[in-house]
């Protein structure tokens, strides 16, 4: 079993990718498909292109996605991407 990276957990895994594609205002697809070796580089690039409201949605969505991933890894609790996004929307 390989070690999971932060960039994979937040951007590249299929559930995270689905969640990110639902952000209101839309996340530019090139920011999802570009290869990043460091998570902070990806987050900085995203923050440069989003307006303040979309940036807030993005951060809240990342937190919810991270919690979802932890629930899956540690508790074997899997939620659909739409459920995670709906929860994030209530906080935006």
N-to-C terminal Cα separation, in Å?
A: 36 Å
Number of strands: 0
Number of helices: 6
Q: List segments where confidence is low: pLDDT < 50 over at least 5 consecutive residues.
A: none
Question: Radius of gyration over alpha carbons?
Answer: 13 Å
**Rough outline:** globular
| Order of H and E elements | HHHHHH
The helix content, as a percent range, equals over 70%
What amount of the residues lies in strands? under 5%
Q: Which structural class should the secondary elements be placed in?
A: mainly alpha
Q: Major sheet, described briefly?
A: none
How many distinct folded domains?
1
Oligomer class: single chain
Mean pLDDT comes to: 86
């Amino acid at each position: 079993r390989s070690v999971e990276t932060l960039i994979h957990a937040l951007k590249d895994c299929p559930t995270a990718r689905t969640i990110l594609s639902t952000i209101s205002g839309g996340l530019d697809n090139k920011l999802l498909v570009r290869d990043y070796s460091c998570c902070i580089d990806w987050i900085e690039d995203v923050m440069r292109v989003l307006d303040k409201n979309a940036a807030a949605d993005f951060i809240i969505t990342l937190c919810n996605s991270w919690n979802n991933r932890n629930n899956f890894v540690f508790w074997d609790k899997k939620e659909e991407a739409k459920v995670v996004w709906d929860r994030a929307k209530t906080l935006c």
